[in-house]
Amino acid sequence: MLYQAIVVALVVFLTVGGQELLGFTQLGRPIVIGPIVGLLLGDVQTGLLLGASLETIFMGVVNIGGAMAAEPGLASALAVAFAINMHGGLGVALPIAIPLGIIGVEVKTLIYVLVVGPFAGVFDRLAAAGKQRKYTGLHFGLWTLQWFLYSLIPFFAILFGSTATQNVINMIPASIINGLSVAGNLLPAVGMAMLMKILWENNISVYYFLGFLIVAYFKVPLIAVAVMAIVIGVVSAQNDYRMHKIEKKADERPVAAASSTGQTNIETTDELENDDFFS
Amino acid sequence: MADKNDLTSREKKLLRQMYWRSFTLYSAVTPAKQGASGFEYTMLPFINEFYDDEEEKKQAMVRHNSYFNSNLALVPFIMGVTASMEKENSQTKDFNTDSINAIKTSLMGPLAGIGDSVFWGVLKAIAAGVAIGLAKSGNILAPIVFLLIFNVPVQLIRWYSGKMGYTLGSTYISQLYENGLINILTKAASTIGLMMVGAMTSQMVTLKVKWNMVVAGKKVLETQSVLDQVFIGLLPLLITLGCFYLIKKKNVSLNTLIFAIIIISVLASLAGIV
């Protein structure tokens, strides 16, 4: 159990923490962490499947500037470890993971506010004094400190939590476990809804239904849908651009007549540049 | 496009450093100033290159130790613009240094908006969608495919937009805005993203109704097959749209929704519906 605890803590440190050092590389996503933990604990398949399921559920959870609704990385690492310990508790592992994700984000916020937060003043002083080396040291030091603290959660959770969780799960009746796996299949709806919140505009909402229909009735793989979507996106951008040019000409005419001809010249060079941009 | 060859080899080295250092933007995020320390760390090579006077260096350090928050894929562009302004400041006497932070601030909001919808909403969704399909069929390459689909475009954009920001300065992006081209690009990206999300909804949100109407020991209504005849995946679609409605219009939090779904599923299972 100590080996597992160390491995999982290390994976969390290097991926969830690592993605803050190697920003925006998506290292800390469930689809990456799941298989890694699975591989290290000797069951890649469980890791892959759980990673995929958790990735769908947490699809819409995006971490923008430290503010997020859940921390999928910790949840995935622990869910995979527990599932492997309990030998194939896939349906059960999902609902365990979700509260863990929420606890994870609470702890992360706590560290963020109480441990890193107070150093804002130190950064100010070092900048004012021009102490570059110390400033850089603090920049990386705080990274190490906060993710070390964060990795202690999976360490102790695995060390002490595995047997306790197993005992609790053995007591749960079958119909509740069935309900939990049903929930596991429905929860991606929340992730999708979060993405729709980012993307939805009424005038393009039909494309959501088009995407749904293509997969529901024709069972097209996602990569093919992606290519179709890109074709549609390019065509509609070309149309919009044409419309935009026409509208602009209509708007410009009275203005151009009133002002100097120099302005229209600038306009045309702009358009040439934009043509480049699209070709 | 401006000629990229007019960069000195010294400047090319600085831009390389910018690319690598900007990875750490959020390494020490503080509630008050977000990515300030990462931005400062990235600017240090430029500050040391452009200024000789210790006092000027200190002033520049204070300048960049200010609130910064944007989308990581497009941050190098802002850094490039900022660096080019620092260079101008070091060469011009009456340069208004307030304009440096003003440009930074004016760029970070809009770029975060586009970046988040393009990279989180579209690219990340496509990468995850493809990788999830692979992972479910047991393909061990899933995480690698995921990282490649996401990172190859992002790293190219990070590298070239940084260079672009430095050579073209701040005029270019404001031109894109004034032309209204940004809106066209955002709309096209959102279209792609939305269609992918629709496809993923169909593939990933699943529900089978077990309850059937039974009269005198005979099944008279097989609920699931009737539902499928109406429209395949009708219930998952409605549930997803319901979640979207609650999040968008009612501001229901993610965690509330997750727990509500778990509780309702368990109750429905106990009642024998699913």
TrEMBL record, chain A:
Chain spans, region Disordered: 252-279
Biased composition range(s): Acidic residues: 268-279
Biased composition (Polar residues): 258-267
TM spans (from-to): 77-103, 109-128, 140-160, 172-195, 207-235
Pfam families in UniProt: EII-Sor
Membrane topology field: Multi-pass membrane protein
Keyword hit for Membrane: yes
Compartmental location: Cell membrane
Keyword hit for Transit peptide: no
PROSITE patterns assigned to the protein according to its UniProt record, in alphabetical order: PTS_EIIC_TYPE_4 (PS51106)
Alphabetized PANTHER family for the sequence: N-ACETYLGALACTOSAMINE PERMEASE II COMPONENT-RELATED, N-ACETYLGALACTOSAMINE PERMEASE IIC COMPONENT 1
Name the UniProt record assigns to this protein: PTS sugar transporter
Upper lineage: Bacteria, Bacillati, Bacillota, Bacilli, Lactobacillales
Automatic annotation (TrEMBL), chain B:
Transmembrane segments: 67-85, 140-161, 181-205, 226-247, 253-273
InterPro entries: GatZ_KbaZ_carbometab, PTS_IID_man
Keywords: Membrane, Transmembrane, Transmembrane helix
A Pfam family recorded for this sequence: EIID-AGA
Domain of life the protein comes from: Bacteria
PANTHER family given in the database record: N-ACETYLGALACTOSAMINE PERMEASE II COMPONENT-RELATED, TRANSPORT PROTEIN, PTS SYSTEM
Protein name: PTS mannose transporter subunit IID
Species this chain originates from: Ligilactobacillus pabuli
